[in-house]
Design brief:
By secondary structure, the chain is an alpha+beta fold. It is built from 13 helices and 9 strands. The longest helix is centred in the N-terminal third of the chain and has 36 residues.
């Protein structure tokens, strides 16, 4: 049996008696059962008859016109099929060889996801923006039970904060997506591109330019591990944004801090380096680097101004330098303090005197998107028997 498409293709040959025995038999059966093709057949036969009666010199004029139309349609269909095949070939090449820059299913899906992420922010749908980091930690790196609880608490708290910031700064403002372009693909991550250019074949990024009011904001969205569910976000904008610049900065800082905590394998080192010039462990250089850090961890005495407190810290650290040989600071995150919107962090500072005896100082403080915040917890200093008494007193005097 044949279908309607095939019947239309060979109808003219059928009328002219040019079909073979099998095609003629199938056409007889099809025309008998298909009203549409039967009408088409009758119309062609009628046209053939009218042309025969009208002129013996042009008996097949109308039939030939129909035949030419059919041939034209066949050519159009063939051209469309070729175009489709070429487009498919381009997409396949782009999928398997992304460095060519050709379109691909992956590129298109990432582009759509990047657009959705920016739309989420302007529509106050903040949860997906944070979940990009959560997915990476849970699906790729993994984390301890304690960190899992912290991530959950931070996620809930940061989502609430982001919603509040949106209501204050962005609600009701007109915005639109202006442009979406590939930032990089299958070559560099955004961070690596800036820092050291390390190649990573699993990263892809798009820059989405959104317009709010009359200002443009660029969102660099970096996807990881060839999945649009794993990503982080960087904002950039001009200093001309006045009315909502503070809100954009708050949103960016919250998202960036949350991503950094979830992502970073050594978040403790990040906290330590936050306000230090360099992470040095040689005590000779300690006072050059630890003053900014210690100023954040320890609150100055009541009434002391910043300059005086800084000078005192410098002098006391220099005195400690002369009666010790090594020192080392470790960090430990205890939990997330929802009331304070910060992590509870414990600092353990280990010092070795010139005779090799050790002492540690333990201090709790808060750490959030703005940095360090001292608490009222007392400093605990523990020294082994034999630790230099003079140095121990200096440690007590330091704080």
């Amino acid at each position: 049996m044949i279908d309607c498409v095939k019947a239309e293709q060979i109808m003219s040959d059928y009328i002219l008696g040019l079909t073979d025995k099998e095609e003629t038999f199938d056409m007889d059966a099809h025309i008998h059962t298909c009203e549409k093709c039967r009408k088409y057949y009758e119309d062609l036969k009628k046209a053939d008859k009218e042309m025969s009666e009208k002129s013996e010199t042009e008996p097949f004029k109308k039939v030939n016109k129909v035949i030419r139309k059919q041939k034209k349609n066949k050519w159009i269909a063939l051209i469309l099929a070729v175009i489709f095949a070429m487009a498919l070939a381009v997409i396949v090449i782009g999928e398997f060889f992304p460095n060519t820059g050709l379109p691909s299913i992956t590129r298109l899906s990432y582009k759509k996801k990047a657009k959705n992420i920016v739309e989420d922010m302007f529509n106050n749908n903040m949860e997906p923006m944070l979940w990009g980091a959560v997915n990476i930690a849970s699906g790729t790196y993994g984390y301890s039970e304690t960190k899992a609880v912290n991530v959950k608490d931070m996620f809930n708290d940061y989502t609430h904060q982001l919603n509040s910031i949106y209501d204050r700064y962005l609600a009701g403002r007109k915005w639109s997506i202006k442009e979406i372009k590939v930032a990089y693909e299958n070559s560099f991550s955004y961070k690596s591109l800036i820092n050291n250019g390390n190649q990573n074949p699993n990263h892809m990024g798009y820059t989405v330019t959104a317009t709010i009011g009359i200002e443009d904001i660029e969102f660099d969205i970096i996807f990881y591990f060839y999945s649009p569910d794993y990503y982080d976000i960087y904002f950039s904008y001009t200093e001309d944004i006045l009315e909502y610049k503070e809100g954009i900065e708050k949103i960016y800082n919250l998202i960036n801090h949350f991503y950094r905590y979830v992502w970073d394998i050594d978040y403790m080192q990040y906290i330590l380096n936050d306000r230090m010039v360099d992470n040095k462990t040689v005590l000779d250089d300690m006072y050059d680097n630890y003053v900014p850090f210690l100023k954040g961890v320890y609150a100055p005495k009541q009434g002391a101004d910043d300059i005086t407190y800084t000078d005192e810290l410098n002098e006391k650290l220099k005195e400690i330098k002369g009666t010790s040989i090594t020192e080392h600071i470790d960090m430990q995150i205890r939990d997330y303090n929802i009331d304070k919107h910060a992590l509870n962090v414990q600092m353990i500072w280990q010092i070795t005197d010139i005779n090799g005896y050790k002492a540690i100082m333990i201090k709790n403080f808060l750490y959030d998107v703005d940095g360090y915040h001292p608490t009222d917890d007392l400093v605990e200093i523990i020294a082994v028997d034999g630790f230099d008494a003079k140095l121990f007193r200096k440690l007590e005097e330091l704080f």
